Amino acid sequence: MAKSSILVTGGAGYIGSHVVKLLGERGERVVVLDDLSTGNRDAVLFGELIEGNTADTALVEKILQDHEVDTVMHFAAHTIVPESVENPLKYYRNNTAATRNLLECCQNADIRNFIFSSTAATYGIPQDDTSPCIETTATAPINPYGMSKLMSEHMLHDLSEACDMKHVILRYFNVAGSDPDGKIGQSTKNATLLIKVAAEVALGKREQLTIFGTDYPTPDGTGVRDYIHVSDLASAHLSALDYLRNGGKSTLLNCGYGKGFSVRQVVDSIDRIHGEKINVVEQPRRAGDPPSLIAGVDKIHQTLDWKPQFDDLDKIVDSSLQWERKLMEK
Ligand code: UD1
Question: Both 116 and 248 in a single domain?
Fold first, then answer.
């Protein structure tokens, strides 16, 4: 029988679970490996969920063999920037060393395609933050999280010279929103991400939203980011899979919409969709935040057949609010 399963590591997490849903709906064979440290069993809507870690060589080898895996999508990672500063080795262990282990298993099992979740945190604070970051913009992570991912990118790049496995590295910008069906969403506890926090404030789960910094060199003084709906990010993974299956070469792609919104614009959107103003306070800048981070997206559109469907801040915010309501009912 032809090898045809897709191993999704971290498939019980926020982004991974959205990708598993799309893969399942498309009829792909999926197996999920997740240690459930931050993921949720209920979020895995398709395929078998195997509880474990990518650092477990014997387990990974067994899964690759038993499930006739030919493609690996690697989401499993720690993603909290301040935690990575306090505990860098935790990040290098799980995001870098465990990825090295997974890659070695993939090399030994002749895996053909590898899709890797990377991050705009690899760019650090871009020298020229007036224009979008393109894939050739210098990388200079300013925290262990970004560095742990960049090290994995380098391993993949080196490996592509040494074996036949092809990869697509996707550098995510600011991921937000939740599945339009309302079945899955972002369940992270003690979230720090702007849209999630703002939605929690709107629904009374938190007292107020703090705007970190109103004196940035941006149009309204607050930080600007490229927010991408998680379902569009998920569909980019399926496009990347098709690209590799059609013989595409290993590549690195930014994943965003190529436009930025300020913190105040996000707050306005929340107020508009929610129908009343949320409670906001202003504080000085948060350490390590670049003024503006926007994806250059020419390369992803030239490379993949990817058509975003939720490129609209209000849609992102609306889906976040709906998911927060759902979480309250649970
Ligand atoms: C996120 C990602 C990071 C990635 C980056 C890409 C996580 C934990 N972080 O970080 O890995 O590299 O996107 O662009 O996934 N803000 C407030 N108040 C808040 C929260 C945020 O004013 O309560 C502001 C921030 O100062 C920033 C903007 O909102 O200007 C977005 O912040 P946040 O949602 O935390 O994401 P990033 O820090 O950009």
Answer: yes
